[in-house]
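User: Could you check the structure of this?
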Amino acid sequence: MNNFMETIRFFSPKDFATFEMLQTVHLVALDRSLVPVQAELDENQLAIHYPQSENLRFGIPWTIPNFGNKMLTTGTLAPTQNPYWLSIELARGLCASIRNQASDWETLGLVPSEEFWNTIQDAGRYLFHAIKLSYNQEEYDPEIDKYANYSMQLCMKASILLARTYIERILLLRKLAQPATEAAIALKKELDLEYTTEKSLIEQEDNFDEDRVSQMLMEMETSDTLGTMPDSGNTQDSSLYDAPLDISDDDTAIHIVEAVPPKYIGVHLDYNILEKETKDIFFQTFNHVNISVSWPRILQRPEILNEYDQQIDWCVSNGFSVTAGPILNFFPAHLPDMLTRYIGNYEVICDKVRDYVSLLVKRYRNRVSTWVATSRVNTYFPLGLSLLQQLDLTIKIVGWIHEFQPTAEVLTSLDMPWGDNVLPPPYGVEDEDSREYPTIICADYLLRSRNKINGFQLEFNIGYRNLATYDRPLLEWSRLIDRWSHFGVPLYLQIRVPSSSAPDRKAIVSEPPLWNGWTMRYQALWASYVLPILLVKPNVYGVDWCVFRDYRTHDYPNAGLITGDGRVKKAQVVLAEILKYFMTEAD
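Assistant: Sure, the predicted structure tokens are below.
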């Protein structure tokens, strides 16, 4: 409590968040970094103790009916002795955030749909009604939450509509620019003229074919899966959906016009060869494979390298691009026992790791062009090394890979890209020194090294308890990738999303998700809404859905596309549609 000088209070439901969820509450700084606070829930009041700040905006978990549990951000607040209404402030922050994003995109030429504007205006009306009910109200009233929830539901629908328009616009511009780009490249080859993509885009827009565009937009129109807003007299649990959404029979979940320049949807595999009954599903869903090589297994059974050989050969022969790694995973279960004998001995650990890098890279350099140097570098510290030492070891590994394979593309994986690692454990990092440095600061340090890192894998373990990423509203995902894109390097996103809160005996991490409402339907909806807006970002080169089969050993529980008893989840159908419509085959 010594670091928390001020207190702000909110009227709230007494059971809106568990104790673990309250540990994730934070202050949002002006630079969007996260600042730890202390949150306490006493009956119908939430008290947040926070350090002095010029910007009072708080990230607080809240369950929006039909859309799940999200980390929402309040509007900007002023210090006061009187309690705010939590649901109102979260709705106000969400509505303002969506309007601000629409305004930003309008300045770039995007024209939001009339349906979007009608929806966000309706959200404002429900918010205004909630504010009127709260006037001079000195006790908690659930009726206020009901109307604030209605507003947040409509805000979520509006964000989907706005994102859909953004995706369609980006893909349309890429489609129209492609002929001009190809012509300019041919002209450059013939006349040796200087060529830039930006110039070709401008020239193409001067010859904009309105009839052609109108026809494309008509083809992109899709039916809306969201129903109408319930009347104000309905009960709080009224649904935005007129009927349950059946994704398996809905090819309109992804709103696109045609494939974009080569990107991939991948999956992590180990040495276990796919079963015959899963191969068709595998080919439908992925065009890339990340081979996860286990150092402990190789030390225990060196002949397992032959099985990795077969797996890599199978992937290459079937047309999958292949990434291998991480070579060094700091997660304790993925480290060999041999290294624990040298805890804190940085030089010896470096020597052991170099020998292992040499073994792998020399063996596979003719078949693998992309390597992942390390993962969990900024979140786990089982070898007694500091954050700086683990970052420097990562840089050394990058150098060793280039030494043994000069043409290799080398990535490194980073956890918790929102900077949740600064929060207190168990959600954040246990090491106090590393909590001083958000993930994006670690990325900046790595990019400034003398050994070239070609890009980052950003790891998102959505909704889990330990060292994970809290789910956010759709447009917040867009803003996060825009922020990481400032580095100007390729981004590869590693995704794990739960489909259940039930125990998973094959999972290495046994703890269930924070929110117990995750289902196969929510998992599929998350993929349908979030992945498309990530994939249209120019710096995002691909997405890995890290777990394929829940009946094989995997890290996070219930994150696969096939259940433990062999049933295919709805998220697989969504990913197959994304691959079908968003991807083109790499030349």
